[in-house]
Write a structure and sequence with these properties.
Layout (H helix, E strand, L loop, with lengths): L8 E4 L4 E4 L10 H6 L5 H11 L5 E8 L3 E8 L2 E8 L11 H4 L7 H8 L3 H24 L13 H4 L5 E5 L18 H20 L2 E2 L8 E4 L2 E4 L6 E2 L5 H15 L9 H12 L12
Antiparallel strand pairs: 1-2, 3-4, 4-5, 5-6, 7-10, 8-9
Helix pairs in contact: 4-5, 7-9, 8-9
This protein binds adenosine-5'-diphosphate and magnesium ion (MG).
């Protein structure tokens, strides 16, 4: 379902710039197309459902197709949004998530077994688990005042459960110039220092709340107007997880390694110490959302 949406868009992976030909926007999939075309494609089904639920009016372009999910730029009632659609677990191999899920308690024994045996139903449950986890974490972190994208369904699970297997959040950047990842930009030395400090603070903010990201590096940090935004939360782990300390250490190391290209040479140990020290400092101001 990807190429059709990209007819008039060109994706330049390096700069994350969506260049649009001046005149004809006919390559876009209009609402009418999305709702009229019957298709077995899982992506089309979910998009039609999101339109029907009033979350979405138009999908503008495919942004990135990863192993577990595809990210789209879309429009909705509250502006430009990032639509992340998780893949059908049966169609693609899903990364082994057991490290992150250890310590989680699944009360329903039959559900636990289905997931363990990776039956069709078990895979569906695992997939919704990832989507629901990503929303739950986004809401918690957003409310706590961290620099994360604002979730655009919820805040109650009964609302965001309707969008499975998609996660809707506010797009960082603009429709025409989506925020690049820190891994894709060139930074001046001063910007690199600032990005590093923000990345450390972000990891410390998570730690203060009892979380470890689980995949923390410049690949999951966006850079927009000199501000770092953390993304990609399904694998976030809590202190209940017996691998918490190991994940923390690993995140510190991958963060440090991913900053080498920005000219910063800091060891994983030093990074971890800095994060732990910052975690003792003041928390960000919580966001108050009015109903
Ligand atoms: N809120 C957002 N605003 C702009 N771009 C985003 C946003 N969320 C994700 N992206 C882009 O989509 C890509 C995939 O999202 P991510 O959550 O990292 O999923 P995954 O790495 O599992 O494919 C990111 O690398 C980033 O380029
Ligand atoms: Mg990612």
């Amino acid at each position: 379902m990807s190429a059709r949406w990209l007819d008039d868009e060109q994706w330049d992976g390096g700069g994350q710039r969506l260049r649009r030909k001046r005149h004809k926007p006919q390559g876009r999939r209009r609402l009418a197309d999305l709702t009229a075309q019957p298709s077995a494609d899982q992506g089309d089904d979910i998009i039609r459902r999101l339109v029907h639920l009033g979350h979405l009016t138009e999908v503008v372009a495919e942004l990135k197709s990863g192993k577990e999910a595809t990210a789209y730029v879309a429009r909705g009632p509250s502006g430009t949004l990032l639509l992340k659609i998780y893949r059908d677990l049966q169609a693609r191999s899903f990364k082994d998530d057991s490290v992150y899920r250890e310590g989680q308690v699944i009360l329903d024994r039959r559900a636990a077994k289905a997931m363990q045996q990776r039956t069709r139903r078990g895979l569906d449950m695992l997939q919704s688990g990832w989507v629901l986890a990503e929303y739950a974490h986004l809401w918690t972190l957003w409310h706590a005042g961290l620099n994360v994208p604002e979730p655009l369904a919820g805040p109650f699970p009964v609302d965001y459960a309707e969008t499975v297997p998609a996660v809707l959040m506010r797009l960082i950047g603009t429709e025409d110039h989506v925020a690049p990842r820190l891994s894709d930009v060139r930074l001046s030395p001063a910007q690199a220092q600032s990005a590093w400090a923000q990345a450390l603070s972000g990891m410390a903010d998570l730690l203060r709340l009892g979380y470890v990201h689980g995949d923390y590096s410049t690949y999951n940090l966006l850079w927009w107007e000199d501000t770092v935004t953390i993304i990609d939360f399904p694998q976030l782990a809590t202190r209940q997880n017996p691998n918490f300390q190991a994940l923390l250490r690993r995140d510190a190391e991958s963060l440090a390694t991913s900053f080498l290209k920005h000219g910063l040479q800091i060891s994983g140990d030093q990074t971890l110490r800095d994060v732990q020290r910052r975690a003792l400092g003041p928390a960000p101001t919580p966001r108050v959302t009015l109903p």
